[in-house]
Automatic annotation (TrEMBL):
Protein name (record): FAD-dependent oxidoreductase
Entry keywords, A to Z: Membrane, Oxidoreductase, Transmembrane, Transmembrane helix
Entry-linked InterPro entries: FAD-dep_OxRdtase, FAD/NAD-bd_sf
Natural source organism: Pararhodobacter aggregans
Transmembrane regions listed in the UniProt entry: 7-24
Lineage top rank: taxon: Bacteria
GO biological process per UniProt: mitochondrial respiratory chain complex I assembly
Amino acid sequence: MKASYDVVIVGGAVIGSSVAYFLAANPDFAGSVLVVERDPTYRFAATSLSAASIRVQFSNPINVKISQFGSAFIRDFARTMQVTGEAPPDLNFHKGGYLFLAATPEQEQTLRENHAVQRACGADVVLWGPEDLSRAFPHLNVADVRLASYGQSSEGWFSNTGLMNGFRAKARELGVDYVTDEVVAITRTGARVASVTLKSGAVVGAGTVVNASGPRAALTARMAGLDVPVEPRKRTLFVFDCATTPEGSATVNEGRLPLMIDPTGVFCRPEGRYFLTGCPPVEDPAADWDDFEPRYEEFEDIIWPALADRSPAFEAIKVVNRWAGHYDFNVLDHNLIVGRHPEVTNFIFANGFSGHGLQQGPAAGRGVAELITYGGFRTLDLSEVGYERVLENRPFLEKAVI
């Protein structure tokens, strides 16, 4: 580790390592990069505990385009991220698609409005009535369904740690330094960040600091005398076995079932021989930084009743695993914050992904790298999701948040 770096990234999971990779891979960037990660096991990182899926079914064009780039990047990941002398990384991508179900007039209208945006962006998404839905997925009870939205391509799920480790390995090969340590202070000189102090006692000069510290983003920002409306919110995931699995029964996508979002908010997807499921919590307070105790009651009280109503195949199921992770939850509008602080311009935010960090990581990393290298966005303009909206208390509207 050197005494100073052009860029210091706080947090080495998928967002921080994506930024590091896109900087190091850009021939127009000639600077040095340090990634500081407090936990090299990444055991409790939002990345590691994520459901790791990607969709283009959003209501805002910028979010659709972010995921379109993410999908293309994941598709080419093995070639792009191959490290010399090692096997190409395999993300084990499952092209299952997303299936949104609407049971009320309001939900139907939202799906139709979202679909118009998605199609305008070139997304391969179709709308189905109950009959089409039943033909595609015969196991489903469609009696209450008014409309369904199904992503026919560019959607699915993949290895969360595979994405993170691929970025990390390639960034290292390209010259990025990683250190296991913790940023405990950030020194400013007027309107500029000057250095970071590590728990080990080292003081490292920094030309630019990137806040990629996930659910701890607010703690990092406060060290620089700044604020970001991000806090940890707990989400519990359950893996269940099914007495009679409906996987393989679909008449589309080679029989594979999608990630289904029920009108109740419960979601479910196949996961090998099992299924993965979760739901929005009834109460959603900020979680303690170290609280990873699952909300066990959600399965019996919310998830199982909804799934049993949706499919007879889900009446006889049992939980075989469960865990809780944290969203880096943006309390302003549940959307990513990517951009410079307008006053402390060498402090850059890459925070508040609110459960979408894995799928939005490639585009966010590329965008931050462009800001540092060129002083502005070159490919996808992310200014709509910049920090200015936080200061102006101007939420960025996205209706398709799950």
